[in-house]
Amino acid sequence: MKRAVWLVIGAVVVAAAVWGLTEYGDRRLDRRLEKLHLIDDPPRAIAAAAEFLRVHPRLDEARTAEAVAVAVNAAFEAGEFDGLVSTIDSLVATDLPSPAVSRLLAELHDVLVIRGSIFGNNADLERANGIVRDLLLVSDLPGEAYLTMASMRAGLMGDSLALSEHYLAIDLARRGYADAAHDTLGLGVATLDSAHRALLEHVAGARGVEAALALADSFTAGSPDPTMAGLMMANRYRLTVESDSTRAVAAARGLAGLRGRFTDWRVPDEIGFDLSERGLDHGLALALCEWSLSLAPSRRESARIHDHVGLVHRAALDHALAAEHFEAAVAGLDDVPTLGDRAVQHLLESYDSLGAHDPAIDLLGRIIARSVLPNEEARERLADLLASAGRSADEMPKIVSARRYAGVAQAPPFVVTMESGRRIALAQLRGRVVLLCFWSYT
Q1: Does 347 map to a domain?
Q2: Which end of the chain lies in a sparser environment, N or C, as judged by fewer CB atoms within 10 Å?
Q3: Which residues in the chain show pLDDT less than 50?
Q4: 73: number of CA atoms within 13 Å, CB side?
């Protein structure tokens, strides 16, 4: 019995020692990475980052990416495009670990695409194509890197892509989507969509819409993934909506039929809103946008979709429901609402359609109260609104004042010790502007 107890204790001690050594090693690596960022001489920074990668061949992905970024940023500072290309080439030629080489080649691809697109250098673009083919064969590059390369090609090469290059972009997007981490899955779907959309539009322009539709069908037939099915339905809609609204609506219905299996919010939001804008099918537009709302990953996306749902209701002349969604959109804004926000404009228009003066006065009062600048436009609109409601503009200061600190809690009392040793309480600063700065070295 005692022997078993001692064995357990020994195992716990060994595990704790291993954990402690790992923690110690991680801290050392992080401190070395911090020092790399502090080197302000580009050649020294490049050399130090390369040495760091060589000495630590089994680095995790995040630290590998950070060290490569130090080298690439320093190279760019030292010589712009030409210096950057030559420096990455020299680093790739050294005995760096394979993951670092793959990362550097991905960076080199992006630089070549940028330089080739700006200066019309076909040799750069051909070399970038070769790098893509090589990197599609490796297994030590994260999905995010493939998505970045695909997005770079779509953003800069765009309409100039040849058919074979469109397929390369699709291969990159598919690889990135397949390998994407959970927090980049949305980016993966968006990149996959844009790559296929660019190819199908290219085919439609060169061979006609029917050829593009047939290609879209072949993509769906070759993949059991509901994401691909949803993206192809969206592309069928985009390809036909200008010339054949019946087929476009059928494609939109096909997309709606994937509810519960297709999980990206962007596509149903886009197609639903476009349906409404074109006046094609209000019920289907609303169903797609409300489905999108149920998929929204954060408050920001929810706010955008609420605004779209409000516009769909407004197109159907249901101003009361429209106002509810516009209010949700305004509530979801990251910053203090302003007259420049689309959701605010839409909400004020809905209040006007409903003859709802009081909530419009409250909204304008909040905008003025939270504005740093005088905001004369909002003040003029509030004065006009008060007049329309049969009230006096003299009420404006009271309206604004009542909303300046609405919902703002008073800071709790506290005492801090200054660097000099002097203690100061928040209460001593009452009536003055106080800036609190929080930071940590860990």
Answers
A1: no
A2: C
A3: 12-21
A4: 15
